[in-house]
């Protein structure tokens, strides 16, 4: 079975894939004919596909998130690859394939990621901080297990958010060791909280973001977390004017650093300065890693990476 | 008695003024002598003043917010006016002057402003919105009566914030009449709430802002109001995910319009778009009015106005 | 008859529409065939349409600004609706439809708008100002009755400019009442003059802008109005150095506020500051209103609005 | 007699200078004493000076634009040189010095500059263009002979504007030779007209700009020239809609290239593109030349030059 | 034979052209068919073309840089012209056409351009400067004869770089005459060196740039030239700390003027300031000239020019 | 002995300090008197000081970098502390104080820092990379032991550059462990090289930067390092076109990330992306640490930190 990442024009191939998007359209011909405009994916990537001359049965059989077996031809269209589908059928239990195998996912299991996050949470010494973080982790609930960290920028896959948090916690632990003036409780709390409202900012299924939610658009995840902290403080009877509450809200509100990057205030706590760079370093290097992984080894340059000022990354030959 | 706005070099004068700022300093001479570096103010403006050769008694008598009788000489120093104090004493009850006469203040009495705000608040038809706004008005408390709207930009005087709100409510009422697609409840709520955390963002006394508070610096008034709304909703048992709560938070968060002006989200509700322009129109025209009022009639140009891109305003001769 | 705003794929429909744009193109097939690539419109909106296999007669019958009866099918093409035309013929006198019914137009009649503008013009007390404004209104002539206010940003329809002026005059009257330091004559003059050269900046027919004129591109409407004022002053023998002439030119030149928005000078008169915000408030709220009106009620979000930083507007559910 | 450019602390010197600025101030001492705060200048530069203990006679004798003989001491105050005046008296006819010797001035005589401008003007072949340019040259009148080209940026001295025009005409002639698609009439006209309203934008005496005029601030010289062209066209009965008039106005309006540099339209004629670079090249190189000339040869770096992004220029040792 | 610049829909034509780009693609039809997606060019311009139903022979016959004889039809597709190829064959020796006739090229022969550059190089008086420049000219080698000056911005054709250098040398000579404080050696050196690494920054064949090289992307031509100067200095035993080496590197590094235009340092030598404006004037006027030349005389407006802020240029009718 | 950091007005004190800056100035009095305008420093900070009525002996005794014993009075002048010197004499051998005790310095000894750098250098496995880095370390020589990393932004003290490098190497080692796609040799090389030309960009003595060097201003340290790499490659006979040389130059050139921050190219290698964030994280957190250390514990806010967008940092009370 061929991985999508390995397809090249003009390959003919057979394999199992997941329908990620599907729309019924009409050709320009006379008379117009219906066809299915599809995006197929597997864990290695995604590719557009067309089923020409779609029958009524086709239109009633195939939907987004359906697992299918496809026989097809890889074509070059406007300099991008696409599939011309020859045969297609739904996968059956006998095929022995399961949906989660076709989803791009973090390299560590969600279970392990969540365990790590809880272990760090429990290691926060200040009980007030721990209570606030704990409240927010409970509030986001199961979604922390599978939510991506972003729509497309970075960690845009199943459990991407939890993976981002865990890697940041590693950097945070290192930097607290190197810089004793940083408060480890605030660093841990800031890392766990900084994007914790993202699952509610986006509409996602199995790590695939289809849109932003209404509150995501109207408030943004940064202000949402700030309100969650208010909620947590009220729940636990913590003074809203206390330095702990204001400090945690500040660290979250300022973590994008500049107003034009979405932060209403600039970092003004040592831990807020640190959090911004811990977050940037992990996000940017993950963009590089994701681009390298999904680009064939034979290509010296990755595609352009939007989060890196639209620059491609080069594989140096040493 | 000469108003500060009317003083010109090299006038000699006698009058009552308020000590707005005071610092004890030393001259460069040998031996060094103590002198008092003072800012005097009255309702018409403010001016720097020096008391050379300050005695021990002087240093123990005069403090900020002291009302004093001054005999002095107006001098020109580095192109700006300053007072050389000849005689100075504390005002006594017999002088019949009272502190509030020396404070710059909104042209409408705080009592009337607060009455108007409450009347409009009561006219909000949607009970959920009314409850949230009411909670915030109760929370800010007495400070709404005397707080300025800003440190120096606009409405920087006693009751400036309430005055700004009331004038905006007038514009809001007009624009809701002109544009029926606007929801008057949201417009009223947005206007009352948009700056309601400013008294907690700044440290002010009698309308004079001396600094920003810690939470003012770390959170900013925009995010503070957003948290107040969360608090209000929890208090009144309103769903935090409801369109009402999200909508009010959005209107407040977006009222500065652009990220570089301090808003983490752009306006995406009709009332949010309206609120930004109601706020701008009132603030900018007040800057113009304040500059015209504190500039002698004989001057064709006001000083530069920081909030108007550092431009001065000209009195056209028609 | 179905309004364009109400069409949905895969509707079949019959109705009268106006051909707004038309181009003869060739298919990619062998042999290539001619087809008509059309944009149909009515007062509710516009939609692309194709007439496949266009005959010689078709090509000699249909042109932009032709009223036609169409039988067609609504299709989805690249996520946007388009019409596949089945039958099409020119409208005849017997059909009882008239062109102006198919043009999007201001909600107030041009006649009434012009009357209002003249009434306000006559109420300007300063005869010099009145003469200058009057000269410019005469100069623009009939075009004021039907010109749109912009190519696509806002008020982009028949009589849109006059409608924009009239609504701004309402705001101007209100704000002069609220702020007595504003000179009502300058506000009225500024509002009537600020965009008065737009009909000469754009090439428009029935409120539909097809292009900018040469002088529109080389000078821009702001500088054009400034020259009209010079012309008016010379015609009426008014001193070009007088504060009246300079003041009116300044108010027009500065009404876009910032250089990057097209103003060569920043507002430096109270009325110039006011005019910018009166203009912004009316234009931005009209963009919101236009977007809400042309979006089906069932859609919670309007399309993105270019003049509002490319943000969509949400219909809150209270 | 020592030139100001050559003074160094702690020189004692005697010489004739011009009082460029003068203000009467009071010392901080008790009792306060009057002193004269003066700026002295000669053709080589300028320097601040103090006359301590000014007598009543002193205050009635010395004014800006008075030629004086000074005996003084050069001191270093806050890292900048200033003069402590020992003796000072007005220059008398016997001294044989004349005011214009103390004014910084273009290196070519105003008479020759004006002759050159008129010669080029007469060489414009298109009579319509020639008439418009001629009208503007007549309108600016004598001021063209002595006006500086800017307040401080470049050519900020007697006849600086005419000098700037003449040097640009040389570049213009060269570039028309090199690029035959450029119309020499438009290049000549654009160069003579581009800054011709500057003498009316600024308030200047003997090449020293003390302020901007009201119309300079409210309109700016670019829009002023555009109106002058309108005036010229009306005077000569030229159609205001003709390509000649629009073209000349465009060339002037666009010569600052970008909106943030003050141009309401971008260059869209070949000659407009050329004019911007002719103007920039002459202005920037003049800034360099002026900085080199007024910096002692021994200094490897000039002071920072505001018009060159606040960079200093270095004398390379080859 | 029709020049590409003169083709108009729906012309039928026969002529010789060069295949500039070629890709084999498949149609959307069932069954899919191969077609050739081609860009044809001649010295006057370029145009897209399709060969539908491409045979196996076709696919083995036609490649980029093949000279062909084409019989075709000009069609309008999405508002842009394209060719539907009827017949196509390779050019034969009998046709008497040669490849270089179909390449857009500088209006002066490469031989003459190189001669001029060498003549100026030899006229540099300072032997150290001459040696460094000479080293770099030798290093770039033959590529200087045919390299374009840019991918598409300006001088994007055969020998475009040499032509750009030669025209700049003319301006440089003029400006050194006008401004004696400029060092002619540095001006000559700066002009010859400023873009001399461009042939190594880009991958070009016959003046057609297909991509940037790896070192072009990773270093940029500005830093590459700086390293070449280091290399030259080491080769000739010149002190790397000497003002000559630092000065030449500075002039090259700063010639884009601002960081956002690619220069790591701002111009701080008189010759560096001059070089930036000599380069800008030549590049911008060449963009204008190129646009005018490739636009039919009947069109009053050229297409938008990317290097001129996306503005089109107008042909004024005087 | 009182540390400068602990001085408060109006303390009287005696202690040893270093004269960091000294200028002879004159008072405004009649007759003018000479005084010494001094900046005193010790390892804890610096403060301005005045010696009024300076004798000829004083002027011949005290110079920058002189160790002195001072008896003085702390005064408040324009809201900043300054010293009025009562008595002052040069330190003698008997005083037992040594200059280096008065210099602010990295918290790790230069010797240890250099050892660490050499150890890491030796651990670079790729011999070509190691040779290039080694060449540059030899070239900078002893200066690496004492040079600060910047004039005032961060690590602005004795051995600050070496300290910055060593801390970055720690982060680099951590991040290479976390991200195996990063090449440790390139990370090590990038860190050691990125600022290695700073000692030649600045003029510094004992960690105190007095100015930038000519080549520092004309080339900047980023381009200087790029040339050093060219030099190193030529010295070791390494191909200048090889990926190693280009890669190292790219990593150095791009480490400021954006053009407006000084980098002529954007990061396009994984290690270049990493280096930028390693550098930022270390520099920004050091700015925070330096500000916290030099601010009295009793102050909740540090002074504004220029490199952190002019924001102060707050000490949270948990």
Automatic annotation (TrEMBL), chains A, B, C, D, E, F:
Q: What is this protein called?
A: HD domain-containing protein
Highest taxon listed in the record's lineage: Bacteria
Question: InterPro entries of this UniProt entry?
Answer: HD/PDEase_dom, HD_domain, YhaM_exoribonuc/phosphodiest
Keyword annotations: Hydrolase
> What molecular function does GO assign, one term?
hydrolase activity
Q: Does the keyword Hydrolase apply?
A: yes
**Classification via PANTHER family:** 3'-5' EXORIBONUCLEASE YHAM
KW Ion transport (keyword) present: no
One Pfam entry for this protein is HD
Q: Which organism is it from?
A: Paenibacillus whitsoniae
Q: Which residues form the HD/PDEase domain?
A: 157-293
Q: Name one GO biological process term.
A: rRNA 3'-end processing
Entry's SUPFAM superfamilies? HD-domain/PDEase-like
């Amino acid at each position: 079975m061929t991985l999508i990442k390995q397809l090249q024009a003009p390959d003919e191939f057979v394999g199992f894939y997941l329908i990620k998007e599907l729309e019924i359209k009409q050709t320009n011909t006379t008379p117009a004919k219906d066809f299915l405009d599809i995006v197929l994916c597997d864990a290695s990537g995604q590719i557009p596909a067309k089923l020409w001359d779609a029958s009524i049965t086709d239109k009633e059989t195939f939907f987004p998130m359906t697992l299918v077996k496809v026989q097809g031809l890889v074509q070059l269209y406007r300099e991008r690859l696409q599939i011309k589908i020859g045969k297609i059928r739904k996968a059956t239990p006998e095929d022995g394939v399961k949906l989660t195998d076709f989803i791009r996912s973090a390299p560590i299991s969600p279970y392990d990621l969540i365990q790590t996050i809880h272990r760090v949470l429990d290691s926060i010494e200040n009980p007030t901080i721990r209570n606030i973080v704990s409240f927010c982790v409970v509030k986001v609930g199961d979604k922390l297990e599978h939510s991506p960290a972003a729509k497309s920028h970075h960690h845009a896959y199943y459990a991407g958010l939890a993976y981002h948090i865990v890697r940041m916690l590693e950097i945070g632990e290192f930097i607290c060791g190197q810089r004793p003036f940083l408060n480890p409780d605030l660093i841990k709390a800031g890392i766990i909280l900084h994007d914790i409202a993202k699952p509610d900012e986006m509409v996602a299924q199995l790590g695939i973001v289809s849109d932003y939610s209404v509150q995501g658009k109207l408030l943004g995840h940064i202000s949402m977390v700030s309100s969650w902290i208010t909620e947590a403080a009220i729940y636990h009877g913590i003074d809203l004017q206390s330095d702990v509450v204001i400090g945690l809200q500040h660290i979250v509100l300022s973590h994008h650093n500049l107003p034009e990057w979405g932060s209403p205030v600039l970092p003004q706590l040592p831990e807020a300065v640190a959090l911004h760079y811990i977050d940037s370093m992990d996000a940017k290097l993950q963009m590089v890693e994701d681009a390298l992984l999904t680009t064939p080894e034979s290509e010296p340059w990755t595609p352009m990476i939007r989060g890196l000022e639209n620059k491609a990354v080069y594989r140096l030959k040493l």
